[in-house]
Amino acid sequence: MKSDRLLALLLALQQSGKQSATELSSRLEVSVRTIYRDVDALSAAGIPVYAERGSLGGIVLADSYRDILARFDENEVRALFVSSDEALADIGLLGGRRSALEKLARAMPSRTRATLGQARGRVHVDGRRWIGTSAPSAPLAALREAVWNDRCVTIAYSDRRGAVTRRTLEPFGLVAKAGVWYLIARDGETVKTFRVQRIARVRVLERRFTRPSTFDAGEYWNGVAARVAGEDAPYVATFRMTRRGLANATVYCTVESRTRVRGSAQAEWLVRIAFASFEAAVHEAMGWCDDGVAVEPPRLRASVHERAAALAGLYAGVVDILPKGRS
Asked: Per-residue DSSP letters for 286-319?
């Protein structure tokens, strides 16, 4: 790809200084004419690379620009090489990240490369939830291409009630939130957010659209997140939990605090947990059974009791609701 070649050209100039077009063409395995076209493209983009004429001339990257990589401090290097590949793998860019970092590493001075060697493999960020279905790769791959090429798409989308609609959208960006992907797109005159997991089919159209020059997916998403946080405050409840219950809660929920219960026959804790909603708290409490017994608020205890009684009645008559001839 041209973008990869331009990056390789910049890194070659940063690492080795002035080189002739012939040397660069051999190194990058392209023609001399292509090298000059790439130099023009980089110059047009505002990067200070130019060709010096004469017998001692060559392609030059300004010293001020070459010094940038040499000025990475240790924390900046470590931040670059913290491992977090899941989102990139979803949209088919995992190899691109690793390749780019390897090229960047080779272009760094020896002192910085030593810091890099120590940073590799020490911190890994796993953005996925323990429970949940990953977004399908086929829709993501199609949406990625549409986003980058400003192409309209037609999707089949299921809402929360399962109703399917067909929409033609202008895709502005993609966001990964804890392993769940969202599409930001203009639907008619309104910019909306769509959960990619609910998109059954994607067709990329030949028709292009004009993407707003000021739109930034990160800034837009921060606004969405702020609105959601303001509208949906967490529901906090306290449970009396066994060791197994606490272990499960720590993995699957947001535990705010825990206090060991003294004098109990078995190891138990009072645990404060923040849930996304009241319904989420009830659902988890039903699943924990006696490993996690709700203590407060009283409304939660009453709801769990009511639903448990209804569930017991349902299962007591399970044979009666089966079709005849089956057991």
From this structure: HHHGGGEEEEE-HHHHHHHHHHHHHHHHHHHTTG
Using CB atoms within 10 A of its CB, is residue 170 exposed (0-12), middle (13-18) or buried (19+)? buried
Burial of 97 (0-12, 13-18, 19+ CB in 10 A): middle
| pLDDT tens column, 191-246 | 999 998 889 899 999 999 998 888 888 889 888 887 776 656 788 999 999 999 99
Number of domain units in the chain? 3
- What is each CA distance from 160 to 74, 129, 165, 181, 198, in whole angstroms? 46, 20, 12, 16, 9
Taking residues 97-106, report their average pLDDT.
Answer: 66
Task: Looking at the structure, tell me whether residues 62 and 111 fall in a common domain.
Answer: yes
CB 83 within 8 A of CB 124: yes
Domain that holds residue 150: 137-230
Spacing of C-alpha 42 from chain mean position? 30
Residue 271 CB contacts under 8 Å (≥ 6 apart), including other chains: 238, 239, 240, 241, 245, 246, 249, 255, 257, 258, 259, 292
Lookup: tokens for 216: 């930034």
Q: Kindly indicate the confidence band of residue 315, based on its pLDDT and cuts at 50, 70 and 90.
A: confident
Residue with tokens 């983009």: 45
Distance from C-alpha of 34 to C-alpha of 136, rounded to nearest angstrom: 38
Residue 325 inside a domain? The answer is: no
